[in-house]
Amino acid sequence: MSEINDSVTGSEILREAEPNPKQKRESDSETPISIAKKAKTEDDRNPDVGLGEVGPEEDKPVVREIGFEIEADGAEDKGSRHTMEDAWVVLLDAGLDSPGKLRCAHFAIYDGHGGRLAADYVQKHLHANVLSAGLPRELLDIKVAKRAILDGFRKTDESLVQQSMSGGWQDGATAVCVWILGKTVFVANVGDAKAVVARSSTSDVLHNDSDGIGPLKAIVLTREHKAIYLQERARIQKAGGTVTSNGRLQGRLEVSRAFGDRQFKKVGVIATPDIHSFDLTEREHFIILGCDGLWGVFGPGDAVDFVKKLLKEGLPVSTVSRRLVKEAVRERHCKDNCTAIVVVFRRK
């Protein structure tokens, strides 16, 4: 696992998925957050120039982009926990107060630990901070976009730490975020939440009734940040922290990067994300975002196969996301909070 420094490059790092065992964070997380932001787009712009249009059904979020449509929805379940600490965002028209010619969509999962407050705060502020940091809205510039995401993460974490000091709380949250600008996907993460893209080896197109689609590979788009990993451990030790024999920072926190966790900031916890980008082609069919609860019981390939099967049955993405979470909790016995977002790309 490579550490991201302050220099943002345009390089893409994608890995073919390998199953990962279930990972846990600090064990005293017991407070709920389950707020989803969903935006249904209204587009009065000219579709001939490749901008968005609204799908015909009000309860079926759809964004049209040059050559493809985006459908997305999420689902959550607190599992066997007493409370729900995950927060998630689905924004199909994510321009907010920064409209532009470049279509912007945003999806994110924030997995809280130690309480709900950090996840709640980041859910409300991160995307707005990324936009204000200069996320391109007219012409795409990869380096500018990555710098805006990096700066947005930094600003959000700094203000969150100040807020937690004022309020006397110490919650933290991992994050996996996706921004789609035009046809370019940006993925940013801190901690152990994960994003996976389903990619075919050919240019087969996924439709509701596509029975002939070939096998899909599950490509992991994120890197886990855990104290036990060599480069993360070295960075923590340089900051004065320790990683105990159980692989936890100061014997308590398994992740090495997160929003908040102000009690661990001086010993190496940072909110600097890994940021990767790639262009959508006919080979990319859908992306699954999930907290570590989902990936603890689903291997990336298993999740892709599960979602692919439901999409081939013609089910709407809202149903697909709910069934994915239900399968994780009811059938595969996920004990943790479980949240998933499914983002589907449909060619016109």
* CATH fold naming: Phosphatase 2c, domain 1
Instruction: Average the pLDDT over all residues and give the rounded result.
Output: 82
Beta-strand proportion: 25-35%
CATH class category label: Alpha Beta
Helical coverage, percent range: 10-25%
Quaternary form: single chain
Task: Report the CATH superfamily.
Answer: PPM-type phosphatase domain
- Uncertain segments are 1-61, 205-211
At CATH level 2, the architecture is: 4-Layer Sandwich
Record the strand order, biggest sheet.
Answer: 1-10-9-13-14-4-3
Radius of gyration: 19 Å
Region (Disordered): 1-60
Biased composition (Polar residues): 1-10
Domain PPM-type phosphatase: 71-345
Protein name: PPM-type phosphatase domain-containing protein
Give an overview of the whole structure.
By secondary structure, this protein is of the alpha+beta class. It has one domain: 4-Layer Sandwich (Phosphatase 2c, domain 1), CATH 3.60.40. α1 runs antiparallel to α2 and α5 crosses α6. The radius of gyration is 19 Å and the shape is globular. This is PPM-type phosphatase domain-containing protein.
In short:
With 348 residues, the protein is of the alpha+beta class. Helix content is 24%, strand content 26%. The protein contains six helices and 14 strands.
